[in-house]
C-alpha cells in the first residue's frame, strides 16, 4: 500500500499537474503535436502571436482539458497565418471577416482570432506583455495573465461559464501587475470590477486599493468610458467623438445606441444579440427566441440608423419539448 507523505505546496502543485497530464495525455497528444507545428510555422514566418484559451490557462496554472487551439494575432497578419498554415497541410477557412479565421489539421481545430470581445486586439501593448512560458518541454508565447483576465471577463456569457472560472483561477495565482490590469480594464471595466469583488469574496487576495481605483474609474471618472479606448485597427474611429468630420454620428455611438435598444426595447429585450458597425453596414449576430424578435432587430436598427445597410445574421433558437413525461416522486 502506498503511503502518501505530506507534500509542500509546490510539490502538491507539481503532482497535481503530473496526474492531470498522465490521465489526459492520450487525448492531448494530437492536439499538442498540432500546437507545436502551428507555433513553429508562425515563428519561422516571423508572425507575432499569443496563445489564449485552454492552452493558455494551463500555462498560467489551471490544468483543464481543451480540444482546440486559440491563437491571438494582429488583424493585418490573419490572412498570412492562414497562408503559412495551408502550406503546412492545414485546411483553412475565413469564418468571420470581423474577428475569426479557422484552420484544421488531423481534425484538430486552430482558431485564429484577431479581435476578441470588448474590441480587444493584439496591439503593441498586448504584444509587449506576452510571456514566453514553458509548456510540455518547450516554450510558447502566452497572453499575459492581466490581458487573459480582461479577455475572459469580456467574453463570459451564460452559455460559456468556463471563461469566468478560467479568469478566477488565474486571479487566484496572484503575481499580477495591478497597474497594467487597471489600464487594460478599460475594455470591460464593470466586468473586471465584478470579477475582482467576486474573487475577493472567495478569499482571493485582491488589494482593496485596486478595487477602489477601478470603482472610482467606472462611476466617478470618464476614464473608463468607451470613447477613451484606442482602437488601433479601426481608423474610422480614431478620434472617437460623437460626430464624424462630415457631421454624422460616429459608428461607436451608433453601435452604443443600437445595443442599448436591443436590450431595452420590449419587442426584443434580448442580451444575446450583438452588432458590428463598419462603414455603412451593420451586422447583427446572436440568438433570439422568435421570428418576430428577429424581425424586430431589423426594425430597431433601421429606426436608429436608417442610412446603414442591415445584415441580420441572428439565429432563432429552437426549443424542443421533452419527449414523454417525467414522473414526480
UniProtKB/TrEMBL annotation:
Supply the InterPro entries for this chain. NT_sf (IPR043519), NTP_transf_5 (IPR039498)
What is the protein named?
Nucleotidyltransferase
**Organism of this sequence:** Peredibacter starrii
Cite the source lineage: Bacteria, Pseudomonadati, Bdellovibrionota, Bacteriovoracia, Bacteriovoracales
Amino acid at each position: 500500500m502506498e503511503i502518501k507523505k505530506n507534500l509542500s505546496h509546490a510539490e502538491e502543485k507539481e503532482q497535481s499537474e503530473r496526474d492531470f497530464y498522465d490521465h489526459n495525455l492520450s487525448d492531448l497528444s494530437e492536439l499538442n503535436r498540432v500546437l507545436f507545428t502551428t507555433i513553429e510555422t508562425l515563428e519561422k514566418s516571423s508572425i507575432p502571436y499569443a496563445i489564449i484559451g485552454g492552452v493558455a490557462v494551463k500555462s498560467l496554472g489551471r490544468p483543464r482539458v481543451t480540444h482546440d487551439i486559440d491563437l491571438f494575432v494582429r488583424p493585418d497578419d490573419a490572412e498570412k497565418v492562414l497562408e503559412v498554415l495551408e502550406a503546412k497541410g492545414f485546411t483553412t477557412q475565413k469564418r468571420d471577416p470581423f474577428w475569426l479565421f479557422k484552420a484544421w489539421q488531423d481534425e484538430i481545430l486552430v482558431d485564429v482570432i484577431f479581435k476578441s470581445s470588448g474590441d480587444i486586439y493584439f496591439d503593441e501593448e498586448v504584444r509587449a506583455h506576452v510571456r514566453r512560458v514553458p509548456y510540455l518541454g518547450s516554450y510558447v508565447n502566452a497572453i499575459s495573465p492581466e490581458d487573459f483576465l480582461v479577455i475572459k471577463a469580456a467574453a463570459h456569457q451564460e452559455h460559456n461559464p468556463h471563461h469566468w472560472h478560467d479568469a478566477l483561477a488565474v486571479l487566484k495565482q496572484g503575481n499580477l501587475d495591478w497597474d497594467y490590469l487597471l489600464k487594460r480594464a478599460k475594455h470591460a471595466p464593470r466586468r473586471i470590477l465584478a470579477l475582482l469583488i467576486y474573487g475577493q469574496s472567495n478569499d482571493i487576495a485582491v488589494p482593496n486599493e485596486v478595487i477602489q481605483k477601478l470603482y472610482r474609474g467606472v462611476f466617478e471618472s470618464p476614464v473608463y468610458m468607451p470613447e477613451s479606448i484606442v482602437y488601433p485597427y479601426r481608423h474610422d474611429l480614431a478620434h472617437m467623438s460623437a460626430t464624424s468630420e462630415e457631421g454624422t454620428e460616429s459608428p461607436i455611438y451608433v453601435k452604443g445606441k443600437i445595443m442599448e435598444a436591443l436590450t431595452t426595447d420590449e419587442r426584443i429585450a434580448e442580451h444575446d444579440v450583438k452588432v458590428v458597425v463598419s462603414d455603412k453596414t451593420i451586422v447583427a449576430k446572436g440568438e433570439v427566441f422568435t421570428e418576430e424578435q428577429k424581425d424586430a432587430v431589423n426594425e430597431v436598427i433601421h429606426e436608429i440608423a436608417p442610412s446603414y445597410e442591415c445584415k441580420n445574421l441572428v439565429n432563432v433558437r429552437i426549443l424542443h419539448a421533452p419527449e414523454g413525461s417525467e414522473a414526480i416522486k
